[in-house]
Design a protein that fits this description.
six-stranded mixed β-sheet; alpha/beta
Length: about 200
Amino acid sequence: SIKDARVFSDRVGYIRITEFQDHTPRDLKKALEGLEHNGIDGLILDLRNNPGGYLSDAVYISSEFLKQGSPVVLEENAQGIRHTLSVSRRGLMYNVALVVLINKGSASASEIVSGALRDNKRAILIGEMSFGKGTIQEAADLGNGAGLHVTIAKWLTPNGTWVNSTGLTPDIKVELDPKDPSHDTQLEKAVLELLK
């Protein structure tokens, strides 16, 4: 869900998505419309500590920034057959400079979005190595409150990178200072990059 959406000085927008839920695509569109109305030249998409969510939401969110036909993610089954999920709709933010913040808590669908935006040369990644969850799982309800998650495929970035157990390496590595957690050096670096 979206926890924060605002405009910094110098026309830099900021949106933090903490996880991908059913209402996240709708909330993101509303937040982007608000930022577009305020007039921004750059956007920071903060996916730090975002454990992911639905694959369809990752594709939808990526679609706000990528042109129609752009690849978002590759699904690969046990036989090695790949299927590409691509942008199939018109988004809102094609021309705004974009930075994505990631860290070790960024996993699954948030890694799909990050990888898609970078591989399509649409964004740079700033922060720390992401978690590295490159599998697609299907949930099965077993009744009496029990459930089972079955891995049905693996996902790869548009360039064919499988992040499982390795994660995404940021373009610009910035670690937070453990002695001063209130000073967000990663966010600060993202703003500086957009103001270049």
